[in-house]
Amino acid sequence: MFARSLPRSFINYRTQITRPINSSFIRSIRNLFIQTSETPNEQALKFLPSIQILGENQTKEFLSGREAACSPLAVKLFSIDGIKSVMYGSDFITIEKSENIAWPLLKPEIFSILTEYLTNGSPILLENDKNGIITDDMAFDEDDDEVVSMIKELIFTRIRPAIQDDGGDIEFIKFEPDNGTVYLKLKGACRSCDSSSVTLKNGIESMLKHYIEEVNSVEPIDEEDQDQEKVDAIVESAKLNPQSRGIKEEDQEELTHPPSL
């Protein structure tokens, strides 16, 4: 599910400047084109508009038009029937659609909205509401213990870039030392991908277990489980029934080579 060579389609929309634009945008939008890239999730497509969307290594996801109130562009995209989620990256926008609507029906309107909005140089996010942006800075906290610091460093330096290449992102939620479980949240194209469970177990979990002996398993936290009480309940359930999570110890094989994503 991770980075690999994918077929890409190129669509070039040369813009017609109809009103004054901030001079800093002129060079980047004069030849604005939108490149699309397939993702492992058939219902998600990665749009690369050849200009910066968010800061380096930053992402922000919206799962509904109501959540997108802080982003006029996302609100416009959600106005298209069939759009399920929108995620911004540093230089890409991942859009997820409903299964019952084909991409050829959605692409023209998506391209039209992206081209018009980005040409005008309007802000991607309103200045007064930039909460929920994931950044590399989240990988470091002076209150973290050694194990958590190692987990975060590995996620943000080795795992996160690969997932972003596929139009998604990953967020560290917590580490439970009692059972060695790492709780993560997948976003964007990876959140609803059919192979997300394989990604967690064969990719992320294998890598974390190889480098950090305290890690025994990796479990996802869904969007609806993001509430702290629900997270705590999931963790407590894993403590009471450890065999229901991860791989049994007797069935685990020692890794002789570092796993790759």
Model description:
The chain is an alpha+beta fold and 261 residues long. It contains 6 helices and 9 strands. The chain has helices at residues 23-30, 72-78, 103-119, 146-165, 196-211, 228-240, and strands spanning 8-11, 34-38, 44-48, 60-62, 83-88, 93-97, 168-176, 181-188, 217-220. The strands form 2 sheets. Strands 1-2-3-6-5-4 form a 6-stranded antiparallel sheet, with helices on one face. Strands 7-8-9 form a 3-stranded mixed sheet, covered by helices on one side. Strand 7 and strand 8 form a beta hairpin.
Number of strands: 9
User: What series of H and E elements makes up the topology?
Assistant: EHEEEHEEHHEEHEH
Quick one: CATH class of the largest domain? Alpha Beta
Estimate the helix proportion, in percent: 25-40%
Write down the overall mean pLDDT.
77
Which characteristics define this entry?
six-stranded antiparallel beta sheet; 6 helices; alpha+beta; GMP Synthetase, Chain A, domain 3; 2 domains; Ribosomal Protein S8, Chain: A, domain 1; 19% strand; disordered N terminus; three-stranded mixed beta sheet; globular; 261 residues
